[in-house]
Amino acid sequence: MQDTAAPDLVATKLTPPVPTSIRRRAALHARLLAAVDDPAIRLVLVSAPAGAGKSTLVAAALHGDGRACAWLQIDAADDDPVRFWRYLTAAVGSVHPHIELAVQPLVPTTAADPELLVARLVNLLAEAGPTALVLDDYHLITDARTHAAVERLVELAPPDLTVVLVTRADPPLHLARRRVRGQLAELRAADLRVDPADAVALLGPGAAALDAAHIAALCERTEGWAAGLVLAGISLASGTDADEFVRTFQGTDRLVEEYLTDEFLSHLTADADLHLLRTSVLTRMCGPLVDAVLGTTGGAEWLRRTASSNQLLVAVDRQGTWFRFHHLLADLLRRRAAARIPAELPDLHSRAGHWHAAHGDAHDAVEHLLAGGALEDAADLIWQHGTRLLNSGELRTVRSQVRRLGPVADTHPGCLIVTAWIGLLRGRFDEARRAIGTAAGLGSADPVVLGMLDALQIMLGVIEGDIGEALRIADAAHEPTESTQVMSLALAAALGGRFADARRLAATARRQAADEGHTFVAVATGGYEALVALEEGRAAEARSLAVAAIDAAAAAGYDEMTQLGPAHVVLGRVTGQPEAAAAAARRGVALARRGAGAVVLAYSLAAAAQVVASADADEAARLLDEARTVVGRCTDPGIAGPYVARVAAQVRPGGPSGGDLVEPLTEREVAVLHYLPTPLSQREIAAALYVSLNTVKTHCRAVFRKLGVGDRRAAVQVARDLGLL
What we know:
Blueprint: H1 26-37, E1 43-47, H2 54-62, E2 68-73, H3 81-93, H4 97-103, H5 115-125, E3 131-136, H6 144-156, E4 161-167, H7 175-181, E5 184-188, H8 189-192, H9 196-203, H10 212-222, H11 226-237, H12 242-248, H13 256-264, H14 270-279, H15 287-294, H16 299-309, E6 313-315, E7 323-325, H17 327-340, H18 345-358, H19 362-371, H20 375-391, H21 395-403, H22 413-426, H23 429-441, H24 447-464, H25 467-475, H26 483-495, H27 499-516, H28 519-535, H29 539-556, H30 565-574, H31 578-592, H32 598-612, H33 617-633, H34 640-651, H35 667-673, H36 682-689, H37 693-707, H38 712-721
Parallel strand pairs: 1-4, 1-5, 2-3, 3-4
Antiparallel strand pairs: 6-7
Helix pairs in contact: 1-2, 3-4, 5-6, 10-12, 11-13, 15-16, 15-18, 18-19, 19-20, 20-21, 20-22, 21-22, 22-23, 22-24, 23-24, 24-25, 24-26, 25-26, 26-27, 26-28, 27-28, 28-29, 28-30, 29-30, 30-31, 30-32, 31-32, 32-33, 32-34, 33-34, 34-38, 35-37, 36-37, 37-38
């Protein structure tokens, strides 16, 4: 899986709404700015129903204020924790680019633990000067992990940082606690009610036909609801009789749909109405996109003309290139489109999807293709970009897209590979194995598919603790097409004790990674090389390789990836200073626990036990007990088996240990030995060799004695070490 290209970010999501000619609401703006300027206030909550003017208010108040304003316009897709933090750090980067560069590499870790990213973000923002971080439409976030991390961000916020949440509903944060501590400022629906003085600007040109009494009456009838006043102004601008209009107008949310239909859409020509229905499939639009979807020309001019005469089409960038419909109008148009032009919608979505794909926006492309039923095209894009997103941590997003493919996901080799990676990352190994088997059964000749299937099966063996299986797959593997696959071969060889092969493959993986720009692969492989060097007795070289891998990871922001664990473990074993050695070994264990798999975890636990034994015998015993438990769950623990046994002999004298061959194996013992790495039981081995079960048991005991081990798993690894397998 590749790690080089960052997921495509939609720039307009990072831009505040463009301030219009609407007069500043002085009192509200003053309240908002006072809250943002108050070092005690960590959170400003702007909570009110749709159409209350929340986003416009915040954008207008902060516009030109002089402070850095990082803005994130949240949409439903941002409910993926990794995607949310990727966009949030990009929003911060729009005003503090150096912070994005420093924090963005940590984003993939947020799916499991956002604490590190939040801490680094807070530390950098503390030095960046006054900053407002606006999260608009925060009500679209439902993920509990994201809420908890945002809560932590608010908790740690330095005095110069204020988080502004713009939402239709109160978020599940500890608002009462903030209120009591004086850390919360709130603007609610009652605060946002428009008074007659502000209503003139919202009514627009239509206000010219009204006197003060009319305006006051409209404010009363709309209950100060900004959207209702905007809609009233649109109707008045068309020449409606002012007295009659004010007398009959009801601008409540309950009547918005009816009002929009009767007073706005009914005045459009049939062509103009159809134009709106067709463009309603777009969440945001620019001229070329409109033309591509509708098969027209002049889309950019239509957008500018419509926006200039209608506040229900909103510019979302300062260049006036990208626009969106007001949420209330968009909802109505989409319902009407589903009723009036349902047959056209799949093609409109498909065109939008292909336009986004051609312009580098894979996420919106997949979403439109799924909505339009172009499932094969969507599957191709998920395969093309899904592994990259998984490598960056956006598991929830990719999983949702694969699920919506329906049966197509079970017949598309690439999507089955993506499903298998998701299974591995979630610890659903049966799910991964089924997807791998189904993909293999489709008989694809694509070398990328074949290579990725090999890598998946190798990683499954490593994670589940069956190095023998991983090695068998590696021996029969197809020619690798990229460095990730070579890395998996190197890992299998290293953990299987084939150190010469591991050195050769690791060097190849690092060369390819440099050519491809795969920092992730280069860093991980450096740790594996360090492990091999240490196992071969080259301690100085192992230390140098481990330090280089750790330094490279820190520079690239990969210092929290689980694959870096072996480098820390090696550093712990070769560092002479006891405290530093223990810290490094414990760090390796902590990283291994995040998903490195049973073999790496067992090895790391044993290394930590070995390092801390002289200083803390109890901790060493606990670590060793866990290591032996993990090894006991493995079918074939590779080098971890004899290493755990050796450490046990050191930490607990008299324990089992691997060793040299005590005396040569007989021909029949060698025959039995070759079956030990397989999943066959002793009874099944006896049947295969045409001997009795008791004979096989006798041979096994002899093999264990001569190899100096106490069980089948350790015997397999020691036999590999001695070149007998």
